[in-house]
Amino acid sequence: MPSEDTTYETTELKAIRGTESKAIARKQQEGWELVNQQKGRLHTTMIFRRPKPKTPWKLWAALGAVGVVLASIITAGALLEEDSATSGAEDLAASTAEQPSSPAPTLECEAEPSPSADPMICETSPGGEPCRFGQTAIYSDEVRAGEVRLEISVGEPVKFTPSDEAWVLYDRPLQPVSVYLPVTVKNTSPALALQSWIHSQATNAQQGEYDGIQSVSDGDIESVAFGEIDGLPVGESVSVKDGWNMATLEGIEYRLSIDGLAGYDIKFTR
What we know:
Layout: E1 8-16, H1 20-29, E2 33-39, E3 43-51, H2 57-98, E4 121-123, E5 131-132, E6 136-143, E7 146-154, E8 158-159, E9 167-168, E10 177-187, E11 198-203, E12 214-217, E13 221-222, E14 237-246, E15 253-258, E16 265-269
Parallel strand pairs: 4-6, 5-16, 13-14
Antiparallel strand pairs: 1-3, 2-3, 6-7, 7-10, 8-10, 9-12, 10-14, 11-15, 12-14, 15-16
């Protein structure tokens, strides 16, 4: 017989009329007690109760004590770890302070060469600086038919000894020095065959253009080297040996005039 201090929990169950006994037996097996029922036209509503289980206070107290102990252990461990980390940081700071400071490394940046600074290429323009023997001059100009673009390479002057077949204009006597300039002209125009003529002239430190320097021909060395350059197709090139006879090679310079007044001069020096 339950005591007066017993507390209960209740539950409600609806069963179809005629199945009440089965529902009651099932609930009684679960420890429920039928305390009331109300019959309706289709259903019977039944109220059940059973004593609430007593709270295991001793177990909860023991678990609480264990929790307090675990919390204390965790807290102590965290404090020890923090103290250890702080001590390590202080030791490291002290060690660093004792060591002589070394200067920060200086990063040296080397200047990168310009990608267009090819020593063998000479970009030309009207009135521009002269090119050097051995370089390739890039000539570009606009004409009525379109753009004319040439690559002109001039090598160092090459001395030669004229043969008996050597020829100079007006059969003038030969001077002490005879040289030829190896010249290659390539037509790199976008679409035009070369419709230009090129006039060449050599000078030196003693003689000007009209002071005795004369062109010379001897075998494959030509005095009018660029006479057949007109009509050079796009992408094609022509190489010649442009011959000159003079008193000295000192201060020699070589000038190419493209289309006379229509173009501009390119000068080569040492």
